[in-house]
């Protein structure tokens, strides 16, 4: 991977901007924002699979599905102020949402994004 490779953290730009960023060899990392209908999903649909990454953006961007006072919901961690925070354990929720938007199998998307992470962050252990 060239040193000039850019990683667009928690991408929230438009789908129209994707081609220009691809010319710069950018990788697009999507977080919980893709779980909501809108421009984030449109962008997720057009990013080539070999330039796609997923993230939680923990502790920010707790998925909306997990924000509730309903005790039947999954337990979430709270910060010092008692506010719910995002955690890496919610990555499968983001993976499922991304797979739904892209209309692919979650296992296939997991394998592709893990391979991309190894290419981009080769110095790190990615399982």
Automatic annotation (TrEMBL):
Entry keyword annotation includes Hydrolase: yes
Pfam families assigned: TatD_DNase
GO molecular function ontology, one term from the record: hydrolase activity, acting on ester bonds
UniProt keyword Hydrolase present: yes
SUPFAM superfamilies noted in UniProt: Metallo-dependent hydrolases
Key words of the record: Hydrolase
InterPro entries recorded: DNase_TatD-rel_CS, Metal_Hydrolase, TatD-like
Protein known as: Tat-linked quality control protein TatD
């Amino acid at each position: 991977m060239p040193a000039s490779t850019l990683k667009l953290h928690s991408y929230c730009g438009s789908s129209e901007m994707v081609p220009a960023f691809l010319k710069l060899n950018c990788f697009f990392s999507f977080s919980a924002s893709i779980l909501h209908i809108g421009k984030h999903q449109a962008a997720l649909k057009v990013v080539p699979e070999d330039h796609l990454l997923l993230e939680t953006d923990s502790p920010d961007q707790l998925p909306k599905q997990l924000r509730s006072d309903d005790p039947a919901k999954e337990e979430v961690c709270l910060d010092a102020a008692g506010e719910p925070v995002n955690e890496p354990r919610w990555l499968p929720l983001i993976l499922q949402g991304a797979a739904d938007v892209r209309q692919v199998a979650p296992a296939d998307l997991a394998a592709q994004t893990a391979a991309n992470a190894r290419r981009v962050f080769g110095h790190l252990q990615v399982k």
